[in-house]
Input
Amino acid sequence: MLKEIVLQEEPDEEVVQTKLQLEREKLAGYQNKLKEAGLPVMVIFEGWGAAGKGSVIGKVIKNIDPRFFKVTSMEVAPTKEEKRYPFMHRYMKVIPEAGKFAFFDTFWMKEVVTGVRNRSFDEKAYRKRIESINGTERSLHDNGYLIVKFFFEIDKKEQKKRLKALEEDKNAKWRVSASDVDENKNYEEYEKIYDRFLEDTNQPATPWYIIDAKKKKWALLQVLTYLNQAIDIALKNRAVASQILQNPYPLVSMPKLSDVTLDDKCITEEEYEVKLKALQKELGELHNKLYRKKIPVIIAYEGWDAAGKGGNIKRIAGALDPRGYEVIPIASPEPHEKARHFLWRFWNHIPKDGHIAIFDRTWYGRVMVERLEGFCSENDWQRAYHEINEFEKELTDWGAVVIKFWVQIDNKTQLERFTERQNTPEKQWKITDEDWRNREKWDQYEDAVNEMLQKTSTAFAPWRILESNDKKYARIKALEIVIDEIKKATKEKDRG
Amino acid sequence: MLKEIVLQEEPDEEVVQTKLQLEREKLAGYQNKLKEAGLPVMVIFEGWGAAGKGSVIGKVIKNIDPRFFKVTSMEVAPTKEEKRYPFMHRYMKVIPEAGKFAFFDTFWMKEVVTGVRNRSFDEKAYRKRIESINGTERSLHDNGYLIVKFFFEIDKKEQKKRLKALEEDKNAKWRVSASDVDENKNYEEYEKIYDRFLEDTNQPATPWYIIDAKKKKWALLQVLTYLNQAIDIALKNRAVASQILQNPYPLVSMPKLSDVTLDDKCITEEEYEVKLKALQKELGELHNKLYRKKIPVIIAYEGWDAAGKGGNIKRIAGALDPRGYEVIPIASPEPHEKARHFLWRFWNHIPKDGHIAIFDRTWYGRVMVERLEGFCSENDWQRAYHEINEFEKELTDWGAVVIKFWVQIDNKTQLERFTERQNTPEKQWKITDEDWRNREKWDQYEDAVNEMLQKTSTAFAPWRILESNDKKYARIKALEIVIDEIKKATKEKDRG
Output
């Protein structure tokens, strides 16, 4: 078992004391280097109840300036509100920004092991969460995060002794929770669950450090030593590229943009009016249905400038109950967003169950504008195809309907629309110098979009092309697709 | 009664139709002007259950580009988690940013009237909330927000009819809540509560518009007309300065900074070590106590550059359980923060009950750096003294302990510390060109600080000066004050 393999022998007390001093100074010296290197560090503390995690965290942070860290005490169970979001949501929300430490007093491990112990997770649910955790840890690591995970180990007898001592102390009594007592009573069962989790999530880039927590100072020394080692390695290896993963997801084949015909995709004004009305009515009714069935829907819009995204979104939104959807316009990231994993700001806008989120531009900026303007490294955007697929898998596994639209027009149509905007006073705000500059890079963008469509059109979240030389045609097509997908999802929910 | 006074007569259907078209176009035309003027607009919908608020909201937003608005459907009651924060917290979190609309499907009115009806608010609690709401509305207005409030009026018979129709419709049945039924059954009692609330919150700058909601189109026309009028006025009057309010709060007298003696405030190394240890132990124990008693504590640090704020905070933080406090370093605001009321970003960091928040620089930036660097208008910072007092009143009324430290050194000591930082490689990151530039403005800052100390040292949240030429003296004094204040609060809680 993992836990038995790695426990180290405790040195003499004198040695512990000397080494502690050294490690403390080392950690204090690192905070500035972290800041300069923009390295975000997540330190996760897990382990047995009463093993002394809190007290060690308290001692570790004494060596760090308060401006450089944050301690987050995660609740074991998500709140009622949090339960309306994907498993990963509340964890992704609290990741640190570049150059800072985040210390977590229990993290996703505690939620999962408790779920297993309470029998609220079956084997499939457990496996799914392990997959989410491993994927997220890898993705965070690849995006420059250092994740250091500690498991605090004490044996049954020691735990019993500590719980008893706490209970006998009037002032500390309240610290002993029902789950601590349960843990000690069923130590052997918990041990099996812990062991399995530790093995299932022990990854090369994010290994577990098992801490012998029988003595406080010795526990602190182990934590400081491992943490310093990990930081040292991370600071030295920042430039080393991570390996690009092969795509493990089923893909749907997509045409090249140049093969998409546009001028044959049109509709008469009359037909448009009739269909629009009928489809909006139908979508409105479906919205009600998915609200009651608690199905979340995510609609992602990408496309050329002036392709008609705004008007298209308006026709979808116009059919919906305003209390149940949100349009999220995505601009370039602000400093606090740039300082975190590129998907963080999108995690913050995931709808709750029964709600619809419409993204006006999306996380695909990573493989388009960020790629072409050099806002991220080649390695970053190459890796992003997989990271994005994984993100969307997380969402669809949770039960979300994910619909991705590429709004397509040809080069000539864009020029016409740009010119019209330029010449119409009320529309001038819609056109900027940047739009003209982007237009000059049309061919590069087309290559990037083609690659994106090929690599991220997964079976669970395929791209849909909206031919939009005729904007009305594109709107009707979008409505039809959205209706179709929601219908499928509500029917599946009926069956499931 | 307010509601009866303002109901208008309904015009012919044909007139309604023509006017509707005009008002719709007007609203569509405003969105861009709003953006240019940076005007944030809050539109609040309240009223009887089944009065058709949702359907009107749906029609209003059809005239606006989804990038320019957000609809928020507030829950009537705060969640368990939200209850751990002040009343105003969940409302302040969702205020819109400059240039955008926020539509609210019920807001604070609904929470308050429900509280009154359920007898969960007594008269005092009701009055307190009215005061909070009126103060917040005034402060939002004065900071450039347009707040438009609608109350949807239908009579008892009409409501009964609508509820019945909904209940008979298989697909709409779920929309009828228990509180809707209760409302209709006890219409007269609710009417009294509503009326009183409307009158109590009917302010010159944020009046109520009572909407005759018996017919849908007519209701929509009233809403659009009032909304357009209000926007029109707000756009025209943006430059007009708001009146500066007199201070209604009891003040504590403060010395001028030049009268604070510093060199006599010192402590020996030995005394420091002994006291530090004892005080930190005591504070640690108190932290436990306030956690159990659910008392929130807010500690605010301001002071000269190099005065020793960081080290002082560290000594407080070092005594605390890391799971129960957070240090919040305040830098210059990011774009999304600048686009909102200046207190918004601080509302986002209010601790929950039982927790401690330590602010390293604070909302007082408004009357120091923002004032002196011209980041806000004179009217803005003049008004801010009152707005800040009101904010802190809100926090202390909620039960928070608010401790504000001014860390004081003299000009000579700052120069010595700056020079030392400059000459010590490990400390160089702490000193920037900006620090030197600010130093040149010492006298202006001193004047601003003196004014701030005079005007915001309220009885409920007085300033405390930490003489910090001797940093150790200042640390001990800070610990003593924090301990004292927490002790007082826990004793009061015992009594109350």
Notes: Chain B has a mean pLDDT of 93. Chain B touches chain A at residues 32, 35, 54, 57-58, 61-62, 65-67, 70-71, 73, 79-81, 103, 105, 171, 174, 285, 288, 292, 310, 313-314, 317-318, 320-324, 326-327, 329, 334-336, 358, 360, 426, 429 (CB under 8 Å).
